[in-house]
Amino acid sequence: MTVENPPARPTAWQPFTPGGVASFGGAPLLRLWFFQLLFALLAAAAVLWFIQTAWLPPIRQAIQQLPDQGVIKAGELVWRGDSPLVLAAGNFLALRVDPDHSGTLQSPSQIEVEFGRNTLRIFSLFGYVDIPYPKQWNLGFNQADLTPWWGAWEPPILWMVFGGVVAGLLITWWLLASLYCLPVWLAALFANHDLDLAGAWKLGGAALLPGALLLTVSIVCLAAGTLDLVKFLAVFSAHWFCGWIYLIAGVVASPKAAAAGADSKNPFATEKNLKPEEESQERGGKR
Description:
By secondary structure, this protein is α+β, with helices and mostly antiparallel strands. 54% of the residues lie in helices and 13% in strands. It has helices at residues 18-23, 29-65, 143-190, 197-207, 209-224, 229-253, 276-286; strands spanning 70-73, 76-79, 85-89, 93-97, 111-115, 119-124, 127-132, 138-140. The chain has a five-stranded mixed beta sheet with strand order 3-4-5-6-7, covered by helices on one side. Strand 5 (111-115) and strand 6 form a beta hairpin. The chain is elongated.
């Protein structure tokens, strides 16, 4: 009796095709983690570049426009300069001071931050929200105090953002893979595909990577000004569907379960329920 070995699984080296995603189901876990870390680093680098391009220049310019005196203390902004005043305005971010929130200043920026007397007002596509200043704050809101403070904190903030994006993506992908693995395993089981529960977890994790790369590219386009906030939000929604599509396609592309050999003998069979040809073979063996 000869038993055919199941065909070898292809090497998991890319998650951009259904077969590529399916190959991760049988790959070592470290290989999936390597690709997830690589994609998380790319996404974090894109976020960092976006911050340095769209956020930091207006912030630095706004600090240079502040007067020599000013403070946020006991939940109130004490402002001694001209008002209302635009501190800085870029394509994505604008900062201004308007103690009375008079609404006389507007900018084409996609996000506007307005410092009022008692609240910080943030404008976006969804309207605006007021954030009261904490009562315990005693923050110098002037050029002399904020210039060295921001210069000292800018690099650590960037590193914390970078590490937070990497850690946040990895944790999110692992949680989603845990959420998807049972439905994926059941779908593969009923479709007679060779995929165990661990393989379903790995396939689910790999299926999320193409959508993550799509979102990374959209962040780069947002920073470059070729994509506005509305289109970015549309891409953000689409990247979830991208993951689900690859999830289904990966299950379909998984190898079929190996069928039992036709010449294998049932170990639980008896002489009474053997097939005619098996019975004749048994008689020939006894002679």
